[in-house]
Each structure stands twice: as C-alpha cells, then as structure tokens.
Amino acid sequence: MRQDQAAPGSKSQSVNLSNAHPTVADILGGKGGEVFSITPTETLGRAVEELRDRRIGALVVTDGAGKLAGILSERDIVRKLAETPGQTLPQQVGDVMTRKVVTCAPDDPLLSVLKRMTAGRFRHMPVVEGEGEELIGVVTIGDVIHHRLTQLEHEALQLKQLIVG
C-alpha cells in the first residue's frame, strides 16, 4: 500500500491575519461615507435637532461649496450653553463650531487615528481625500474601537481553531 510508504511529515497551519494593519478605509467600507453636515449660518437650535434626529454626536460644518469649515460637537454646544444660558439656541453654528479640525485620510492606519483622537480628546474625525481635501466620511472613536474589537474576536477564533484543530 502506497500510503504506508509515505514519509511522515507535519502539516503547517497558519493564522490568516489578512488585515493586520487596518486603515480608515476599512471602516468607511463597512459604514459608508455618508456625512451629516450643516452650514455655519444655521442656528444651534437647528443643529441640536439634527443631532437628536440622526442620533449622532457631531455635525461637520461645510461652506456653500461643500468644503470643510469646521465641526460642531455636543461638547461645543454644552460649553456655549454654560456661557450663555437661555440665549444659546438662536446663535449661529459658525460662532460656536471648532474651526481647527483634525482630519485623516482613508489610508491612515487606525492606530494612529485612535492615538490622535485620544491625545486631542475628541471623538469625531472627518475623512478627507486628495489635494482638494474632498470630504468623504467621518470616523468616530466608537467606530475605531468596534473595528478593533471585531478584529480581536476574529483573531481569537482563528487561534482557537488552531489549538482545537
């Protein structure tokens, strides 16, 4: 019998970590690139309604041409409420928004995005692409953490399969 004469050998199993270095594009691929925005001339009252209705924590502020002008977060609104109680909602978004916006690109590694968000103490980061810095999406710290947890679960399952066989 031929099988009896086969040389003993070992079989190698490898863990497929196909996406060991995930990028922002990996998140956008799963969640899409829909961006909820508002203009600087809208009122904070309108912004609060958008945040509530869409169940989100920040709006990207764009000018008339759709260019990134700032970002308005729940935290920005709360600060303004504390400064001007009872007079906040009629104010314009442009007077309250964060103008100096930290952005990322689709090919940025998620780890570097997470580090920038943590260091800057913000939870939303617009994603821009190309020299014209076209706005193509927004990632949140929750998106990044969820992606990493999913990746860790997948890796743990693969390792378990290696052990069990």
From TrEMBL:
CBS domain ranges (all copies): 29-88, 97-157
Keywords: CBS domain, Oxidoreductase
Enzyme class: oxidoreductase
SMART domains: CBS (SM00116)
EC number(s) stated in the UniProt entry for this protein: 1.1.1.205
CDD domains in the cross-refs: CBS_pair_bac_euk (cd04623)
Gene3D superfamilies named among the record's database cross-references: CBS-domain (3.10.580.10)
GO molecular function: IMP dehydrogenase activity
InterPro entries xref list: CBS_dom (IPR000644), CBS_dom_sf (IPR046342), CBSX3_CBS_dom (IPR044725), Diverse_CBS-Domain (IPR051257)
Protein name: Inosine-5'-monophosphate dehydrogenase
Native organism: Candidatus Rhodobacter oscarellae
